[in-house]
Amino acid sequence: MALTGRAALLAALGTLPVGIWEPGWTGILAVNGPLALACACDFALAAPVRRLGLTRSGDTSVRLGESVDVTLTVTNPSGRPLRARVRDAWPPSSWEPGTEKAASRHGLTVPPGERRRLTTRLRPTRRGDRQADRVTIRSYGPLGLFARQGTHKVPWTVRVLPPFTSRKHLPSKLARLRELDGRTSVLTRGEGTEFDSLRDYVPGDDTRSIDWRATARQSTVAVRTWRPERDRHILLVLDTGRTSAGRVGDAPRLDAAMDAALLLAALASRAGDRVDLLAYDRRVRALVQGRAAREVLPSLVNAMSTLEPELVETDARGLAATALRSAPRSSLIVLLTTLDAAPVEEGLLPVLSQLTQRHSVLLASVADPHIAGMATARGDTDAVYEAAAAAQAQTERTRTAEQLRRRGVTVVDATPSELAPALADAYLALKAAGRL
Amino acid sequence: MTIEAPPASTSASPTTRQVWTRARGVLLAVVLLLVGAVVIAVVRSDAHHGRLDPRSADPYGSRAVAALLADRGVSTRVVTTLAEARDTAGSDTTLLIAVPDQLTSRQQRLVHEAMEGSGGRTVLVTPTASVRTLAPGISPDPAVAFASTLEPDCALPAARRAGTADTGGVRYVANAAGADICYPSDGLPTLVRLPAASGGGDTVVLGSPDILYNNRLDEEGNASLALQLLGSRPHVVWYLPSFSDPSATDSGRKSFFDLLPSGWLWGTLQLFVAAALAALWRARRLGPLVPEKLPVAIRASEAVEGRARLYRKANARDRAATALRSATRARLAPLVGVPLAQAHTPEVLLPALSAHLHGDGPSLHSLLFGPPPGDDAALISLADQLDALESEVRRP
């Protein structure tokens, strides 16, 4: 049940007859009695809400930053026309702040025995699953004085996937990969590279790569070409512990790490490598293994969409053990974690040797541009102390990275916008050097 | 458009039956509470209900007196407003004011004016503060009488005939000339008869209401005294002051609301109705709020900012200067061709820097390896000098 503004307005207009012609209880009764009667009629004549039939259809997934339409079909089985306001309620983060009211409310008219469709456009602001809440319907009577109100539960879930903004770097990195593919040995020839084919010598080729045996069989000088190794195993390890919760700019570190991991996965699956994903803090949060190259990216995106940083210290020992179990043969383990001194020294360094023994390890960390900005702050006392603290933090970070490098780990430390291309470059460099 | 069979109802609103099932327990509790409250109120109701009311047969009512008066041809009329009490004033009337203290000072004045020259009798039952206005010349004593039963001890014929009576209560000091003072307790009377200045009327002040109560009428000389005091005129007007009397709130001036046309008041009432409807309209939400688990919002740089504030609080200029210097040294070393491992060794870094800059050996040493600055200004200038040095080195 719900009153409308029209009923309140009529009651307010009733002040004039009460005040001018009939001051007294008679006047009050003469105005409010018919009004109450009209409200009662309106209530009786409004289409019943409970008997409405509601079904949903529409999209079930969307990339963060894009919009998605979910359709609600309202069937009116009663003999009375439905004039209603409908609120299709979703969690607040399903819309940009401030637009949720306009986006979730709809006016609706359904003639008796027919059905109509409503489209709610969501534009989520965070990753994860968005589940539809209640649908509240306010059905007005013919006079618009009184309404019936009721709610329906029509479940629907929209999965919000990571935005993968770094996919804009993919074409240039793929071009670089093609350069590696079928390059001549003029470019550095790694130990692990595989023989690809023979072709004619062109001036500028490394004379060491001339295949004399083939040259003897032909009339021209032939050189060997190489292609990078294929079918290598790459394990992406996302650290979802407390250090991934810190916000750099407007998004947690985890989101930047995911973006970089997705670019690397896209690149590696095109390069013919097998990509697995492990998300871990004190237990396995997500595990994607053994997908075909075509399915890798969708399944990674799906697994990442519901990952959230947990406010617990990462169990490095468990992480290493799980990673070793998931990476059976010599593979590239990409750790997306932090370079903060304490967690690395306490957690990662003691177990690192287990990983580096059989695998190549690449560690990528999200640097905070705000700290770089603080390091250059000058002018007053506060600014200089901030600069000193930032310089101290940067020094510690460099020292930690140096410690890791000495143990044979490749370290990538970059700001969120640069991390994805930097990680892809590191991967390409390892591939070119045949160190996978 | 054809309608296929509707799916199972998605409605989440409670049905009327569910509402009733949920609410009936509460309703039952409320009804029980109300019934219990009424029963307790009735059982424990005050026995003083209808006190000094000539229509009341309660122990503290006065129906017996009224009945005895009626037997003797004296009529009793109950009034509750000042206007009625004033209208009945006359030489053939006895006006009994049951609770004089309940009258406002303006009402007391009006009653006194009406009765003063009328020639009638006024009986005041246990007045305290009001006695000064209603019977000028008499004032109450703060100490009440100990004994309730007293001897008349005066020349008033009524009192002499009645003998001892339960008049012990408030005691009065009578300064007026010609006043009969009776039933003294410790020298001060509990019954005073004060003749009016003109018209032959008088005022009787009673220190205790006991002689009028139903349950005390048959004791001592109570009935005799009451009948003689009230039966001197053919009519008794029994005035029970009430709070609903308009003259009680009337201060003699017209208030703002008296000047308003009544239409305004009723119009405003209707406006309140409209406001209540508008409140109901705005209060009804279109569905409840949707809860959502929010992610934590911690800035990644918080630890560094906290360290900066700690430095500031502790005035850790030495640590701040060391951090700034070592950061600058680490940046300068690759620029002048010194390996990073040796960047913090003055013997290696300084000569290379001097060679790059052509001079300034000692000042470079104090800038990059010197003692910590003495105050904040020195720290700021140190930071600026380190910046200047770095840009000097970077300049091609």
Q: Helix and strand layout, with pairings?
A:
The complex is a heterodimer of chains A (436) and B (396).
Chain A: E1 2-3, H1 5-13, H2 15-20, H3 25-45, E2 53-58, E3 61-63, E4 68-75, E5 82-88, H4 100-104, E6 105-110, E7 115-122, E8 128-131, E9 134-140, E10 146-153, E11 157-161, H5 170-180, E12 194-200, H6 212-217, E13 222-227, E14 233-239, E15 246-248, E16 251-252, H7 253-270, E17 274-280, E18 284-288, H8 293-305, H9 316-326, E19 332-337, H10 341-358, E20 360-366, H11 369-375, H12 381-406, E21 409-414, H13 416-432
Parallel strand pairs in A: 3-11, 14-17, 14-19, 19-20, 20-21
Antiparallel strand pairs in A: 1-10, 2-4, 4-7, 5-6, 5-9, 8-11, 9-10, 12-13, 15-16, 17-18
Chain B: H1 16-43, H2 63-71, E1 75-79, H3 82-87, E2 93-97, H4 105-116, E3 121-125, H5 131-134, E4 138-141, H6 157-162, E5 171-174, E6 180-185, E7 188-195, E8 202-206, H7 222-230, E9 235-239, H8 246-249, H9 256-259, H10 262-283, E10 298-299, H11 302-314, H12 317-335, H13 346-357, H14 361-369, H15 376-394
Parallel strand pairs in B: 1-9, 2-3, 2-9, 3-8
Antiparallel strand pairs in B: 4-5, 6-7, 7-8
Helix pairs in contact in B: 12-15, 13-14
